[in-house]
TrEMBL record:
GO terms for cellular component: cell envelope. This is Ribose ABC transporter substrate-binding protein. Residues 1-26 form the signal peptide. It comes from Lichenibacterium minor. The keyword Signal applies. One of its GO terms (molecular function) is carbohydrate binding. It is found in: Cell envelope.
Length: 377
């Protein structure tokens, strides 16, 4: 083809390419040098972590939380915490809409929810992912649309979206090292695992097992699936006690209160327990410490969802944020469980303690959180 038609076609192609290049540049984040906008809160995972800067968007913003599994108290409290954070005056004025959807165990349904939010023009999507590797197409879709995607807790196996998390493997290592210290002769350990297939379950399990092996002592573990839920953890722990009769130690990724109650109900000897930060677990540690229940309680409160939301707002405002953000762990060990300080006898068993990140200016009262609903909105 030649002549004026050819010239017009070339000009149109050049214009389309220029517009396409500009759109692509505006859509995905730029990789920039640090530090982050809020160095105390947005701590890079390692000194190799890259930093993102998205094109600044005018607010107020439409933000969605696409949760998956909701069948335990941590997830319920997490959703309530997200809603409480969205209602804080300084946050509320930045939000045009805050949407919450929980899709259950169905990975495809969660991916579909994320894609629907992207296609509906939301400015940012926050996810607690059912699977770390299943969202790669959604990540690409978000980048193409200029949507800020932030994963927390169960994060994504990618460096193209923002991840916010504690060192989950390090938490398993903490429990394992504490058990090894508490059991100088080694022994048989009951390990209550979380939701199968999630990154948190895999990482915590690895950290625990690596620490037990590294101790040089002889440990054997009996693994049961508690799904981070007290009722489920209590049942599978009771079954394990009935079959194996004796354990020298126990550990739970979640459902910690149910695990200990299974030992109490069975009349089994109370043994050292390394587990999560549920208030019920800490109350039992405080009440039954003199009966052999020596405890280490460590984990991360559901308030990390608020850090994810804070990160999304910073990114939408054009601020520099790390691609991968490391949050601190909260933990306490016997004999330092103290009523009214780190254990709350007047609060429900299923309230997760340590539900604050002071370095991010994020704190909540129990009343702020528990007065909310976990329902979709």
């Amino acid at each position: 083809m030649s002549g004026p038609h050819f010239k017009h076609a070339c000009a149109a192609a050049a214009l389309f390419a220029a517009l396409g290049a500009g759109s692509a540049e505006a859509a995905g984040p730029k990789v920039v040098s640090g530090p982050s906008a809020d160095a105390q809160c947005f701590v890079p995972w390692t000194d190799k972590t890259k930093f993102f800067q998205y094109a600044k968007k005018p607010g107020p913003y439409r933000i969605a939380l696409a949760n998956g599994f909701i069948g335990n108290t941590w997830r319920i409290q997490m959703i309530k915490t997200a809603k409480a954070y969205a209602e804080q005056p300084e946050i509320k004025k930045q939000l045009k809409e805050f949407k919450v959807v929980s899709t259950g165990d169905d990975i495809a349904a969660q991916i579909s929810a994320v894609n629907n939010f992207i296609d509906s023009g939301y400015d940012a999507v926050i996810i607690d992912a059912q699977n770390p590797t299943a969202f790669r197409s959604a990540v690409k879709r978000a980048q193409a649309a200029g949507v800020v995607l932030v994963a927390f807790d169960n994060t994504l196996d990618t460096d193209e979206a923002i991840n916010v998390n504690v060192d989950q493997e390090g938490l398993g290592k903490y429990w394992g090292e504490w058990l090894a210290k508490s059991l100088p002769k080694g022994g048989d350990v009951l390990e209550v695992r979380g939701v199968p297939g999630t990154s948190v379950d895999t990482d915590r399990h690895k950290g625990l097992q690596d620490a037990l092996k590294a101790s040089g002592k002889t440990f054997s573990t009996v693994e049961v699936v508690g799904k981070w839920d007290d009722g489920t953890a209590q049942k599978v722990s009771a079954d394990a006690i009935a079959v194996h009769k004796h354990f020298d130690g126990m550990t739970a990724q979640g459902g910690s209160t149910g695990m200990v109650r299974a030992f109490l109900d069975a009349g089994a000897p109370l043994v050292p327990a390394g587990a999560e930060t549920e208030n019920g677990f800490r109350k039992l540690c405080l009440e039954d410490g003199s009966k052999g229940l020596s405890c280490a309680s460590g984990g991360t409160g559901p308030a990390q969802v608020a850090v994810a939301m804070k990160t999304a707002l910073a990114a939408l405002g054009g601020e520099t944020v790390p691609q991968s953000i490391r949050l601190p762990l909260a933990h306490v060990e016997a004999p330092d469980f103290k009523a009214g300080v780190n254990t709350f006898p007047d609060q429900t068993d299923n309230f997760f303690v340590g539900n604050a990140f002071p370095t991010c200016g994020i704190t909540f009262t129990a009343q702020e959180i528990m007065g909310r609903s976990e329902a979709n909105q």
